[in-house]
Amino acid sequence: MGQNNYTAVTEFILIGFSAIPQLQIVMFVVFLMVYLVTILGNFCIILAYVSSVTLHTPMYFLLSNFSFLEICYISVNIPKMLSNFISNHKAISFYGCAVQVCSFGICGGVECFLLAAMAYDRYNAICHPLLYTIIMNRLVCIRLIVGSYLVGSVNSLLHTILTFTLPFCGPNNIDHIFCDIPPILKLACTDTSINQIVIFVTSNCVLVGSFLLILISYVCIILAVIAIHTTLGRKKAFSTCTSHFTVVAIFYGSVMFMYLKPESSAASANNQDKLVAVLYTVIAPLLNPFIYSLRNRDVKNALINIFMKFVKFEHRTCLSSILGLN
């Protein structure tokens, strides 16, 4: 009954890093460069997979889809952050905020289960090498990806609907760098205990559940590697997992700190949350292509071959132009 007396909020103000206005232009340049490098890096991984027949394996199929997801993941929040750095009115519409929350939730949930799928792939490659191509066939890989998107989408839609059907009557300042559910719930003009419970339960199911799947896979992998008698064999087995393990450590470490820690309203805690959010929404997607390409000889060779083909093509084109053959 009382909801009719509320003045509906039509937009939110993203405070972000506006507490340090003298650095807004600097941060715009830095985040823009990070965004462009991230897009280019992950696109190179996808290009390497598409262009190189030797990379047409389940592991690289999952990796190319992971790179596509990272492009989507960083593109959900960075463009709005960039516009806010150079704008005096750091607003986002109510429905724009809902779309951002939903999109970000989908990407985050999909990433959790896609990382679990990649761990399952490594488990089969090391623990069942003779049956690997049978177990991880094309259909299984597609099902793993589709299943990740379905679970991530359902989870995100649930949170988005529960959050944005709440009454908001002001203030409308979100003390964060993008629209995220925890700081938005603080602005609701009603009890949000149900939302808090749903967030806690689903966060544990998505984050902890997928992390346990990864953990179980790695326990089995370690046991299998220990059984390998040669040092070279152990090193080769572990080398196929180090890149994935590094990405898992960065992503899950920051996300679990953000969403599974005790609630705090201190200003220092809010600033800490912003820095942690930058880690898993900006830095992690930036590092992923470098982690996989620098530590993976197959990817490096594929990228080098693409570069050499491009150089040869440009050389032939330039030579033809000089000789007037075009």
Strand order of the largest sheet: 2-1-3
Give the CATH H-level superfamily: Rhodopsin 7-helix transmembrane proteins
End-to-end distance: 76 Å
Let me know the number of strands. Answer: 3
User: How confident overall, as mean pLDDT?
Assistant: 83
Largest sheet: 3 strands, mixed
Number of domains: 1
CATH class descriptor: Mainly Alpha
Cα-atom Rg, whole angstroms?
A: 23 Å
CATH overall fold name: Rhopdopsin 7-helix transmembrane proteins
Poorly predicted runs are: none
Total helices: the number is 10
Shape: globular
Q: From the structure provided, what is the oligomeric state, counting identical versus distinct chains?
A: single chain
The CATH architecture is: Up-down Bundle
What structural category arises from helix and sheet content? mainly alpha
Helix content: over 70%
Strand content is under 5%
The SSE string, one letter per element, is: EHHEHHHEHHHHH
